Amino acid sequence: MIEKFLYSGIKEKDNNFKMWLAFPGPYSFAMSSLGYLWLFKQLDEDDEISIERIYSDTEKTDFAPNEVKLIGFSFSFDMDFLNIFSMLDKYDIPLKSKDRENFPLIYAGGPVVTANPEPYSEFFDFFVIGDGEDINLEIAKLCKSNLKRNKSEILEMLSKLDGVYVPLYSKKVNKLTKKLEECIYTPILSENAYFKDTFIIEMSRGCANRCGFCLASYTNLPLRCVKYEKLIETIELGLAQTNKIALLGAQISAHPHFHDACEYIYKKIQNGENIEMGVSSLRVDAITPEVVKTLVAAGQKNSTLAVEAGSDRLRKVINKNLQENQIFEAVKICRESGLKGLKFYGMIGLPTETPEDLEAIINLAKRIKKENKGFDISFGFSSFVPKPHTPFQWIGRESTKSLEKKSNFLKKELHKIGVDVQISSIKWDYWQAVLSRGDSSLGDFLVEVYKQGGKLGAFKAAAKKFKIDTDYFALKDFKFEDKLPWDFIEIKPSKDFLIQENKRLISIQCL
Predict the structure, then answer these.
(1) Could you tell me the CA-to-CA distances from 377 to 367, 415, 420, 451 in Å, in that order?
(2) What is the band of 322 on the pLDDT scale with cuts at 50, 70, 90?
(3) pTM for this structure?
(4) Domains in the chain and their CATH numbers?
């Protein structure tokens, strides 16, 4: 496979500290994971650290497992634990920390463990809570400087670092929040990446909209934007290597110079440059003819819009302050500016949802289709999963039976009017909720799930074997005064703010 490095970190390093940065998925996905690649770049650029990337489909490693002193795992999705366990097994590394006295120290970072590391506390020696760019290098250097110390001594030292959670030394841990003083970009291009030879640029981090269910918003506050000059400089760096770029951010349209960046790209295309550009999902109220014409000129035929719910009322409940007339105006602009179609994303089972809210989705789809003949529209839905550190963390999800009834209703009604629809598996979303709000009692359950193959039946069988009331984690409404597994993480906004926001949003019952 051909890789193009956009930095000079690869060099011969003659030292005794070797580490793996592990991605619990195939090479193609890892090479399109901006965070994973950027962390690798930072560590690789340090003369004192010899680092190797490994993936779930790695066949041969440069370092022998017994040479490796430290392994860091990216942990972005709840079900990643299955691939993590499989990778540890592959290299004959015991799954549980207590069984690894003479093995490398193993840690994890990423959205899942930043939100709630407790279900995985038996498996990792420590966790990075929050943005890992700076702390990863500090961790590696501390471990290298103390190779002659025993495991517990090193872990005690690590526990004193801000943003590091060591289950053996339980304490309050601050979630790390990094200023975006530099532009994060794809440091290694690969023709075998999922997004082939694509230069991804993080132009903003966080989202100020604060939808009541949204983990990505609440764990990444405040919204931070890269300075325009840095952004343009980075775009030029990427275009010197490839014609494929992508702008990334949970709320890129909130960047004060988003439209300027689009205009900059558009002018380059108009001047004859061959540029393909993609963007992460846009907010409906940020759609303008200028933005869409840039996307079309850059080769984009379709785009995605997150509407979340069918009615104005329910969108207010979830803090998605978006009105129906704005949706229709955005669709009109997209069609008239050259896009061929749109995919709308929504969620079912949201708090306070009524049958009328589901009907509103059908009516919305009917009207969009009727007013935009020949324009390709489709819908995608997931079901509500309560997430830590959000105003809706106390609200359990509906029963699987109820949600599957809603799912089938939407599929049937949308197919009637000729609209394609995809809905995530309600059963899998249930288990995601269990893991999301789980605690340290789930350790043996997770091992059993893995040993039994990781399919839906394995989850049910493991819960039965260990007599775990999984409905407690997934379906129960918690009380505000309940102690939650992730309460030890110090994060802004505070728990008191989340309680007040929960009360405010749930009180919105009518327009």
Answers:
(1) 11, 12, 7, 42
(2) confident
(3) 0.95
(4) 3-174 (3.40.50.280), 197-296 (3.30.750.210), 301-511 (3.30.750.200)
